[in-house]
Write a structure and sequence with these properties.
By secondary structure, this protein is α+β, with helices and mostly antiparallel strands. It folds into 3 domains: about 30 residues; about 120 residues, Immunoglobulin-like (Sandwich); about 60 residues, no CATH class. It is about 30% helix and about 30% strand. It is built from 4 helices and 12 strands; from the N terminus they run αββββββββββαααββ. A 5-stranded mixed β-sheet has the order 5-7-3-1-9, with no helix packed on it. Strands 2-10-8-4-6 form a 5-stranded mixed β-sheet, with no helix packed on it. A hairpin with a 4-residue loop joins strand 11 and strand 12. Helix 3 crosses helix 4.
């Protein structure tokens, strides 16, 4: 008899848990979908430097992600330029109005920011994008509702140089310029796993170059040599 009571209690508990899960899932899927910046938090930035490229304009795609399911119709994400921006519209950047489309069947989108190499000699400028709610989307994670795009004509030390130092040694702007010269491209703003093998190979090329030809660093007033052991 006692075992029967225990069995009935276990069945009741399982039923309650299943009901709770069903209700939670229903609540999750019935909530209005939300949007957030998927690659940066409010403490991060997306740098773009014209120091490493021979061109006057470029396009930076700032990625967005939806919390919720894909639907069978196009939707739009609304945003605005925040007052904290120091970049000038039409001088340093150009935006596609104040909304972008999330195509039917998708839960990701991008805000294409066209940036210009103009009036940057006095220092960096920043464009701060801020998501705003609309009929299609509420706001997502509170620390991912703004994205700062920094536009500069100076070299920008990659935020992940701690990892790159395994292949390239200690950072300096002179070494950074040498890397661009040898590689033919600058480092990406964010580390991509697919680039690790490439950085490993180019790190050896930079090392071998410095073995034969040390580079003078005007900033530190020192010679940069092959003083590390690349993988």
């Amino acid at each position: 008899m006692k075992n029967k009571h225990i069995y009935m209690m276990v069945l009741g508990l399982c039923a309650a848990l299943m009901t709770g899960c069903t209700e939670n899932e229903r609540m999750r899927y019935e909530n209005k979908p939300c949007v957030y910046f998927s690659s940066v938090t409010e403490s991060d930035s997306i740098p773009y430097s014209f120091a490493a490229v021979i061109k006057d304009t470029a396009t930076i795609n700032v990625p967005l992600k939806i919390i919720g399911e894909a639907v069978d119709k196009d939707r739009v994400v609304a945003f605005r330029t925040a007052p904290a921006s120091t970049a000038k519209d039409g001088v340093h950047y150009r935006l596609p109005e104040t909304e972008v489309k999330v195509p039917a069947g998708k839960v990701t989108a991008e805000i294409p920011v066209k940036v210009y190499n103009k009036e940057l000699d006095n220092g960096d400028v920043s464009l701060v994008l801020q998501l705003t709610p609309n009929a299609d989307f509420d706001l997502g994670y509170s620390d991912r509702l703004t994205a700062r795009v920094v536009i500069t004509n100076q070299l920008v030390k990659p935020s992940y140089w701690r990892i790159l130092s395994i292949y390239y040694g200690a950072y300096s702007k002179a070494k950074h310029r040498l890397c661009i010269q040898i590689q033919g491209f600058d480092f990406e703003p964010k580390l991509k796993g697919s680039m690790i093998q490439t950085y490993m190979s180019y790190g050896r090329l930079v090392y071998n170059y410095l073995l034969k030809t040390p580079v003078w660093d005007e900033e530190t007033k020192q010679w940069i040599t092959a003083d590390w052991s690349p993988l």
